[in-house]
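retry 2 of 3: previous attempt timed out while embedding hypoxanthine. Reduced batch size to 1 and resubmitted. Inputs unchanged:
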Amino acid sequence: MSDDFTRAESAAAFLLSQTPLRPKIGLVLGSGLGSFADDLSSATRIPYASIPSFPRSTAIGHAGQMVIGKAGETPVAAMQGRVHLYEGYSAQEAAFPTRVFARMGIRALILTNAAGGINLEYGQGALVVLTDHINLQGQNPLVGANDDRFGPRFPDMTQAYWKPYREMALEESRKLGKQVFQGVYAALRGPSYETPAEIRYLRTIGADLVGMSTVPEVLAARHMGLKVLAISCVTNMAAGILDQVINHQEVLDTGERVKGDFVALLRAVLPRIAADVESA
Ligand code: HPA
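retry 2 succeeded.
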């Protein structure tokens, strides 16, 4: 079997053959947050199943397609849905679409996800710009022989979440009159939600949010030198905080409720990130 680099090249060439657009920004739209891609203009929609070597998402609330289109004047490639480790995929497989993005010429990656709120200042529906993460998934997509064509053996993670992009997101949310928080994301493998004791542990070690995605993509993106912005939607307060159980429907419903704010924030930051990648 060919290596990830060759497979990512083939998938990227296939995707670019489907559209005249040449996006420099990639987006991954998480559970309940896929609607941003519904109103891109000049859009081409490509199901994951038709992209060579691409993993297919099985999670409910994930459409499972790549949409390449324009948000205003900015061409973007947006994934409606991702694959997760809890579906049985390896971290390498979960990171493969990020490899493909890079081979398409994408230089900035915007990741979104649904997360449980651990920080008591958050409420259900809060949007949180990630400042850092704690990887508790027990996996890392960079394990194995390093492919120097992607990046170095020991990539730095001190600026995993690009500070200028975080500041842009905070500024734009202020202009929109919407409160946006900042926080540290703890990634677990799932698929069970956490226990209340696990949530107390995560708070103690410095986590503000908990979720089951994003980190494999960030690790692969930084390995290749892509700049990352990640935004979580607090779809529920984490286990044990409120006197109620957590269910996936609630996660999807909250995503649906905040999608207006979420899309407005993405649309406001995109031209600024586009200007940054064009000038680089
Ligand atoms: N825990 C983990 N992942 C999640 C949660 C949660 O509470 N909510 C949405 N994704």
